[in-house]
Amino acid sequence: MAAITTHVLDTSTGRPGAGVAVELEVFSAGGWEPVGAGLTDEQGRLSDLLPEGAEPMAGTYRMRFDTGAYFGQRGLEAFFPAVTVEFTLREPGEHHHVPLLLSPFGYSTYRGS
């Protein structure tokens, strides 16, 4: 089944980023439209950002990670209060995994599998 997933790793602690709020939007003629949201689990994973039974379509998507709230709950101030990652989905039938490596002062991402 096609899915859009993510995994947050907190590189400042070497642990999964549990409890990070993530929103998924798709770009359409009217602008950005929400298509899914969730919280990362104890392993820092969000297994599918699409509603049950929904299939992704080709297009431009973006994930917004609420990093400010995540670090704030740990008593830390984050330089980036949110991280937004835009990506183009060309093959809707494939699994699309977008991990986020995160610290209070930086982040990195890539297309995973």
Q: Identify the CATH class.
A: Mainly Beta
Which CATH architecture would you pick? Sandwich
Largest sheet features: 6 strands, mixed
Return the average pLDDT rounded to an integer. 94
Portion in beta strands? over 45%
Instruction: Determine the structural class based on helices, strands and strand pairing.
Output: mainly beta
The count of helical stretches stands at: 1
CATH topology: Immunoglobulin-like
Order of helices and strands: EEEEEEHEEEE
Total of domains: 1
Can you identify the CATH superfamily?
Answer: Transthyretin/hydroxyisourate hydrolase domain
**Helical content band:** under 10%
Low-confidence stretches: none
Distance between the termini: 13 Å
Number of strands: 10
Shape category: globular
SSE layout and pairing:
Layout: E1 4-10, E2 15-16, E3 21-28, E4 31-39, E5 45-46, E6 59-65, H1 67-72, E7 83-89, E8 96-97, E9 100-103, E10 106-109
Parallel strand pairs: 1-8, 1-9
Antiparallel strand pairs: 1-2, 1-5, 3-4, 3-6, 6-7, 9-10
Concise structural overview:
The radius of gyration is 14 Å and the shape is globular. With 113 residues, the protein is mostly beta strands. It has one domain (4-106): Immunoglobulin-like.
